[in-house]
Design a protein that fits this description.
By secondary structure, this protein is an alpha+beta fold. It has 2 domains: 92 residues; 242 residues, Bira Bifunctional Protein, Domain 2 (BirA Bifunctional Protein, domain 2, 2-Layer Sandwich), CATH 3.30.930. Helix content is 38%, strand content 18%. The protein has 12 helices and 9 strands. The strands form 2 sheets. A 7-stranded mixed beta sheet has the order 1-4-5-9-8-7-6, sandwiched between helices. A two-stranded antiparallel ribbon has the order 2-3. Strand 6 and strand 7 form a beta hairpin. The relative contact order is 0.10. Bound molecules: phenylalanine. Phenylalanine (PHE) binds next to strand 7, strand 8 and strand 9.
Amino acid sequence: MPYNVPKLTDFSPAALDAAVAALFSALAEESAAAKGEDGAKAFRDRWMARKNGILAQLNKLWLQAAPAKAKREVGRRVNEAKARVETEVRSVQARGSAPSSPEQRLDVTLPGIRRPLGAEHPVLRALDEIVGVFKAMGYSVEEGPEIETDYYNFEALNFPPNHPARDTQDTIFIAGQEAKPLRDRLLLRTHTSPVQIRTMQKYPPPVRVVCPGKVHRHDTPDASHSPLFHQVEGLAVDSGITFCDLKGTLDHAMKALFGSSVKTRFYPSFFPFTEPSADVQVSCFFCGGKGCRTCKQTGWIELLGCGMVDPNVFEFVREHGYDPKKISGFAFGMGADRVAMLRYGINDIQLLFQGDVRFLEQFA
Ligand code: PHE
């Protein structure tokens, strides 16, 4: 027999308790019998339908019918019943919508969700590899700001004001700096060499550091030029450092990066902050030196600039312990984008900066 809400005539507490007990036992029974989503819906409607659900009937047949002095007691019980019914309906609904077996919960034949894995950008990878080679030789890593002052980018590196050597740097200047003294005017650093000065201001000799970072030049983009590119600077200062140390260090680094069979060649060059200066070339590891497109038929690939730190540069940091009579050093600057392109066979530098996922995902 399905439960029916009885009309109450006896409103004594004992009679009320008995009526509530009958109600709850019906609730428990019907709740246990309600199966699936349809069962849950029918259960909810029977107990909670606004029009004639059991709760609505309790209001009418119990509460409204109660004499004034029993109203409190009846009200308390009806509220209790309401809370209990709501809880029960919720649990039946949860049960009804849950899949009835684990097999239904997990369909192992569905294609999985592919989580796209990020890939290290080839330039970062090249920077890391270069830095790693020098770390293994005891170098530490320093960084400097991309927005530099004229002083660090030029003056302290022995580019005097108005010196024509500045023209080689295709500098991008920050606007509105004219009111400041020249040395304080801001620009985008054109090389990582300013970090040489910052490092020597920070630490007394001996120092051995590499400084990876972004640099900027006013170049029109093409397959081999980009207004933004990356360098790794190197600086070693100690007593008695010679050009031999420079050659040995860079020869080792090139072999570590491009394979033990590459040869290096030091070609006379000029930089205001090194004397003597050299460009370092490595034998072409694509054609083995015979001549190909990558080495422009020369058999050699130019990779970096270097030299012995010019004593004039030490004069700018003399008060930090750098007396050019007592110490000497070498410095070098390497284009990391170039290294990435050679190592990973990339023929257009623009690819490094376009953010095209089809290109980047090849490095995953
Ligand atoms: N800063 C130079 C450039 O960008 C490279 C360089 C660094 C040369 C250190 C010598 C010593 O061209």
